[in-house]
Design goal:
The protein is mainly α. The protein has helices spanning 10-23, 27-39, 43-56, 62-73, 77-90, 95-107, 111-124, 130-142, 148-162, 166-178, 182-195, 200-212, 216-231, 235-238, 241-258. The longest helix is centred in the last third of the chain and has 18 residues, at 241-258. It is elongated.
């Protein structure tokens, strides 16, 4: 049996799989080769291999999943719809099926249904990832006349479940700042800092929001706290592009505030 990691070059692996298929056609080999074709965006060849696998093993539900994913990536969600519906019906407790169905719905413009599918997938996942919560929130935001409170609530569910992941907190902060809900944004940063191993970046974000809130003295204190936290970092962390930029941002903000009458 040839594994996908047997060679560094995908085309060599495809050739090796093709030789094995000539000797002994197996559903698993067709799926492996089809996945390589999918990786190279050779959609028709990939689907042909998956159909060949289905003929050899008609009860293999995975084939509906990989075919649906292929057509979605090919930009043809209509072709993916029936396939993923069948997969979810056969394997209802598999979260990846719900996530893929959510993506298919969203690609078809049905963002509400996509968000619902992601909620079902998250409920079934033993360890949902940040991108699952983030994508669900983005689907809710893509609904016509979206309700920002629903989007923020979806993000907060993720934060409550997996912690203050930066991508989730940043998106929630963006929405709160758009609504000028500065108190809630500041509280979110305070909560994130309680669990963050490093706080220099949060101090700068906090300072920016305090400026928007008109709380200048507190903003100055926050920027200074950021610079203190940066100074206390080991040199190997201080001498990096992101930290140097953060320090410049804090210094620049302090200079602007100090120059105000």
């Amino acid at each position: 049996m040839v594994g996908l990691k047997a060679h560094g070059d995908d085309h060599l692996v495809i050739e090796a799989l093709t030789e094995e298929l000539i000797r002994a056609p197996e559903a698993d080999l067709f799926i492996r080769r089809g996945e390589l074709f999918r990786h190279h965006q050779e959609w028709a060849k990939a689907d042909a291999d998956f159909l060949a696998a289905a003929k050899l093993d008609p009860k293999l539900a995975l084939i509906d999943f990989v075919r649906a994913r292929t057509w979605l990536e090919a930009g043809e969600p209509a072709k993916a719809q029936a396939l993923i519906e069948r997969y979810v019906a056969h394997v209802p407790n598999e979260p990846e099926g719900w996530f893929l169905r959510g993506n298919v719905h969203a690609a078809s413009g049905q963002h509400e249904r996509g968000a619902e599918d992601y909620a079902k997938g998250i409920a079934r996942a033993s360890s949902p990832r940040p991108e699952h919560f983030l994508r669900r929130a983005r689907f809710l935001a893509a609904i016509p006349n979206p309700d920002p409170t629903r989007v923020i609530a979806a993000l907060d569910e993720g934060i409550a479940q997996i912690g203050p992941v930066i991508s989730l907190v940043d998106y929630a902060l963006t929405l709160e700042l758009e609504q000028k809900d500065y108190p809630r944004a500041l509280q979110r940063i305070t909560t994130a800092m309680e669990r963050a191993p490093r706080r220099e970046g949060w101090f700068v974000r906090q300072g920016d929001i305090l400026v928007l809130s008109g709380r200048i003295a507190e903003a100055i204190a926050s920027y200074r706290a950021a610079l203190t936290a940066i100074a206390e970092l080991p040199e190997r962390y201080r001498d990096t592009v992101p930290i140097e930029k953060l320090a410049r941002d804090a210094h620049g903000a302090l200079a602007r505030l100090d120059s105000k009458p």
